[in-house]
Amino acid sequence: MDFKVENFKCSELIDGKFVKPCFATFKLNGEDRDWEIVKASDSVAILIYNQDSDSFVCVKQFRPAVYLQDKSTTGVTLELCAGILDKDLSLEEIASEEIYEECGFKVEADKLSKITSFYTSVGFAGSKQHLYFAEVNESMRINAGGGVAGEETIEVVEIPLCKAKEVMYDESIPKTPGLLYAFNWFLAKKGNL
């Protein structure tokens, strides 16, 4: 899939739907302090292992923030399937929906295993991500995935297990810390580290 970026511009965010920039003032150990922060939504992410292909099912997406920080990249990152917590559903139900929307597999919420939760972008956002694991096979593939039409442009990619370490340490591939942690968790669990 091609991701062609044109006319990229930044402007002040007045009334954000998913993030709210703000200026915090506080006392820390009796001293006045201030900090620029962003109130961002918490999220779920899912490490998906395809048993039939012995690979991780991941996604590639254009991320404007990555593009803004480093235009030598295409702004396209390799990530786990993920989504923000913007629905009145359980974490597992949201994760199940994201797997279907982004990657095209039908995984029931009760078939997901919780790995852990952690905070991301702690210097300015501090949102919490809940990490899950799902095993799939080709009989569970309902469609090609790709995200919600008109809202997301997602490419589904599979990373063979035998290439996971190589991908983890290839700095030319923009990727998320959650992906690195999840790959490492799986490889350690399987004794491949």
Topology:
Layout: E1 19-28, E2 31-40, E3 43-50, E4 55-62, H1 64-69, E5 76-79, E6 81-84, H2 91-103, E7 113-120, E8 127-136, E9 154-160, H3 164-169, H4 177-189
Parallel strand pairs: 3-8
Antiparallel strand pairs: 1-2, 3-4, 3-6, 4-5, 4-9, 7-8
Notable features of this structure?
193 residues; seven-stranded mixed beta sheet; 4 helices; globular
Task: Please give a quick description of this structure.
This protein has 193 residues and is α+β, with helices and mostly antiparallel strands.
Description of the molecule:
With 193 residues, this protein is α+β, with helices and mostly antiparallel strands. It has a domain of 129 residues: Nucleoside Triphosphate Pyrophosphohydrolase. The protein has 4 helices and 9 strands; from the N terminus they run ββββαββαβββαα. Strands 3, 4, 5, 6, 7, 8 and 9 form a 7-stranded mixed beta sheet that branches. A two-stranded antiparallel ribbon has the order 1-2. β7 and β8 form a beta hairpin. The protein is globular, with a radius of gyration of 18 Å. The two termini are 32 Å apart. The model has no long low-confidence stretch (mean pLDDT 93).
